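Hi L.,

You mentioned the student needs an example of a multi-chain input paired with its predicted structure. This one should do, with 689 residues in total across all chains.
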Amino acid sequence: MYRYDQYDQEIVDARVEEFRDQARRRLSGEMTEEQFRPLRLMNGLYLQLHAYMLRVAVPYGTMSGKQMRMLGHIARKYDKGYGHFTTRQNIQYNWIKLDDAADILADLASVEMHAIQTSGNCIRNISSDQYAGVGATEVADPRPWAELMRQWSSFHPEFTYLPRKFKICVIASPDDRAAMRLHDIGIELVKRDGKVGAKFFAGGGMGRTPMIAPEIKDFVPEEELISYAEACLRVYNRYGRRDNKYKARIKILVHELGVEEYKRQVEEEFAHMKTLGIDPPVAELDRIRAFFADPAYETGLSEEIDRTDPDFALWLDTQVVAHKAPGYAIVNISLKPIGGIAGDASAEQIELVADLAERYSLDEVRVTHAQNLVLPNVKKADLYAVWQELHAAGLGEANLDLITDIIACPGLDYCSLANARSIPVAQKISERFAEAGRQRDLGELKLKISGCINACGHHHAGHIGILGVDRRGVENYQLLLGGSGAEDASLGDITGPGFSEDGVVDAIEKVTDLYVAQREPGERFLDTYRRIGMKPFKEVLYG
Amino acid sequence: MVEFLSFRDDEPTQEPAVTLEAFAGQTNATAVRIEPGEDARELLSVLDRLSLVEVNFPAFGDGRGYSAARILRESGYTGELRAVGDVLVDQLSAMRRCGFDSFKPNRPLDPAVVEASLNRYADVYSKTIDGRAPVWAKRHPEASNV
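Structure written out for the whole complex:
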């Protein structure tokens, strides 16, 4: 885990005081709401339907037990006793008072956390693979690179008023668990001639014009990472569209220029950047890497797991995945209880996970882009004890990557942009498919719901996606099939006319029934869809 | 309240700035004003005859002028670089880091708030051309030529 030094701490502390002063000037009327807006947004503070929403950064989704416990404290003290984990691996609180915001930031700073650039038209929190450092297939731990970029992008003076928000993702495995190619810049660490470097993708994103990022550079050596990233950003800052906020993301620029022309401009700027000495020395990346060195894994541990308890065995088979160290396992904690709200956790649940991280997971917890949590370092011998505690706290659901492991945006229940509610639809689907045997029979099925075309619920990237729209004052739900945010990234296709809230639940049952009838051995829903195409699905839906 | 801020040792340039288009046709103008959509690199061949570049910010949220400023400084421009228009006190620090050394905002600024804003951060993460050593250079003085 990265730890702040005096510089990091001073910068975060200074930010708290800066925000305190800005909030004071706003509350006293010295500043208009219009002037305050970009400032509070750069501190993750949004004005929602009912209250302020504060989004706290969880850099690359990694936290210590102490940091996690602070999130529970904030939920209890300043919110209504819960928080909401997001698809950007962050947490947001939906019931915040402006008067409290600076105090919350001060509490966060006391555990080396912040809300810097979790919103606004700037470089946002950098996301990564939730199995970073413990997964079996990575070429390196991506988090040191993400931390280097976190520092580079924090308060970057040139890129604070970009045309639109800017999201960067760093992974280091051919298995993409972070929707890397649906980011403004996606980076995959690769090895060439024994050296690790960054493969860059640019211009991906969801929203109303979804795009999968094309590759723009096959290998950037670590000593030129910042120069290259800065070149990508400068071309975007200068030439990204500012006439229409819906065409302002870098994906539109890359699309309108053409990827070759964008690459050419970046290369030209990169050649210039390399002369400026803006790259930190490799010693800095080495310094950060030392924080992410493997913890002291015990050796000679038992690989045996007692499967006598059938509920535990079911959870084990669904939620626990292979760790790179013998005798250890990666535990996924579902935040998708049947009929619950995707990503929500109570203060008590957050604190329990903090305790479990300290007691059983070498003091680490992760947040996933699918709005779940991970204990990355659990001894196999401790799995049963961990499950018992999770189960008792309502965190024992066994549905990782199954149809009830739904990604859903907050929707019209909270969000001022939404056209339709997402949460009740997710709840109904979850209840319809609750039965464990049925879910498991359907296998891997990523279902994602957005309450408007901004696509915060990633509906374009769902094996099944749902988009809520407003049709003459009535909520209506369009169905999409065939999307993927993984290494086989693709965008879903709309089936046809939309459905009512109950109708869309029935429609999902129809398409999954068709899948069960048509699948070949070993095929996931997505594979069957790709093989047989849209037509048979349309027939069962509208025929 | 102050209407003009300068961080230069010399006197501010009084000559009115002409547009980039007009500047191209005038051999004796030394002050030019560039708009967000204009390419600062068009000035690179004439930097030595410039004493003032004004960068206009018609709206505070349009950040193209930050790139324009840095490009000019990175290319060796040492004359006055002035941010004009919708320039807000909370932006001064980033603008200074990008190379602006004078400011003529639409609305006057409170000098106390200016002072507090500019001195808020003792350290910075990224390197620009403002001469401030970024945190990584302080962490690794032996490996950094800053």
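You could point out the following to them. The beta strands of chain B are 5-6, 18-19, 31-34, 52-57, 80-85, 102-105. The mean pLDDT of chain B is 94.

Best wishes,
N.
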